[in-house]
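In the design runs reported in the main text, the only information available to the sequence generator was the tokenized backbone. The following block is the verbatim input for one such run; it is reproduced so that readers can re-run the procedure and compare outputs position by position.
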């Protein structure tokens, strides 16, 4: 089964790109971010015609998240991150799909730093960590996927020295991501590609895509019950080069039906015992 995350940067304005990618890549479950559309303008018919059922949590002009599935109806379990009843930004949706729980998120950018937007980002991250602690305690198969707006390490950013003052690379945000992983989540892409330069976002400016001056900010995290089934992970980098494409590329993982006992190791990977 292939599970993907994709910040579409406007689901209606880039619907042609999304539908082309769905047809070519045929992911089974997809988490979308930055719909930039209210609920009534979500293109449910076009996505349904492409073979996907969907749930979504939209917002006019900004934010918005959705879960698509062609392997069973997504049964919504939550459409907002708990912990702040006054937070009206559409950044989180969660559903049971095909025997596992899928959480789709769009974590705040946080710039400029310091300031209220950065404070909101840190608070949102704290709420996420509290909620994922409850999720992981259930022991069920879970994937948390989306645009986290964080480069976890210097390996995840082109010229890290240029990002020292940015909210996406701040010590507080990177520490929060480390705390999240410390609960027992597996960063799927970095597990499969431990030593490789691999990005998921390239700015529209300064010819960033052609220079491969990118960032790895879109992540798929697997709970201990799901991580042993991780068979592959990668980025559909070429999609970023399509006309009218998002500044993000789709990121995907392959999950085997049963635990993967042997896996082809990339250079520098540390073998581990897998049940």
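Verbatim output:
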């Amino acid at each position: 089964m292939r599970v993907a995350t994709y910040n579409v940067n406007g689901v209606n304005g880039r619907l042609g790109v999304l539908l082309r990618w769905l047809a070519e890549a045929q992911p089974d479950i997809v988490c979308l971010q930055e719909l930039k559309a209210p609920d009534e303008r979500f293109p449910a018919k076009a996505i349904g015609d492409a073979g996907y059922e969907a749930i979504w949590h939209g917002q006019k002009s900004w934010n918005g998240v959705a879960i698509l599935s062609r392997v069973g109806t997504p049964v919504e379990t939550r459409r907002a991150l708990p912990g702040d009843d006054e937070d009206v930004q559409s950044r989180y949706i969660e559903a049971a799909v095909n025997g596992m729980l899928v959480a789709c998120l769009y974590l705040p950018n946080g710039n400029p730093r310091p300031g209220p937007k950065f404070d909101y980002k840190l608070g949102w991250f704290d709420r996420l960590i509290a909620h994922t602690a409850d999720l992981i305690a259930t022991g069920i198969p879970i994937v948390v996927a989306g645009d986290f707006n964080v480069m976890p390490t210097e390996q995840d950013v082109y010229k890290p020295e240029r990002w020292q003052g940015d909210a996406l690379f701040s010590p507080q945000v990177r520490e929060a991501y480390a705390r999240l992983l410390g609960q027992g989540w597996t960063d799927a892409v970095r597990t499969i590609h431990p030593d490789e330069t691999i990005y998921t976002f390239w700015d529209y400016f300064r010819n960033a895509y052609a220079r491969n001056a990118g960032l790895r900010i879109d992540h798929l995290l697997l709970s201990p019950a799901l991580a042993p089934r991780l068979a592959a992970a990668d980025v559909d980098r070429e999609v970023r080069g399509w006309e009218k494409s998002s500044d993000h590329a789709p990121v995907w993982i392959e999950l085997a039906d049963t635990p993967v006992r042997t896996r082809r190791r990339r250079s520098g990977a540390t073998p581990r015992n897998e049940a």
